[in-house]
Predict the structure.
Amino acid sequence: MSQRRVRGAQESLGQVVLVFESIIVFLAGLAVFGLKALPAGVEPWWGVVGGSVVAVLMLAASGALRWRGGIVLGWVLQVVLLAGSVLVPAILIVALIFGGMWAYATIKGASLDRRNARLAAEPADSNGD
């Protein structure tokens, strides 16, 4: 049997944030649809489509966090969510909360990964010194 791949703190924390955020983004798309918040001439159902696309991209990004491109995509999606607050101002609250959690997951997670790598590289003292 093969061993599972070891995931770092940045990847683990980032996945948790993006998966939960994808649910909220889908619901935000429903809110855009229900409030008919899109500009005149744009069908309201595009709100559901937009929310669904961003939610699926967040799920895809959560699976790609082992690579630098996944982290970058996560940041881009945070900006897209923030831009959605133009349509429904309440989305700003969601964008700030999840954006803060994403920043913590990526910045602090990377710091923890560097620390853990440094500790793993140090020789172990057998006498506790």
Q: What stands out?
A: Residues 91-121 form the longest helix (31 residues). The chain has a mean pLDDT of 93.
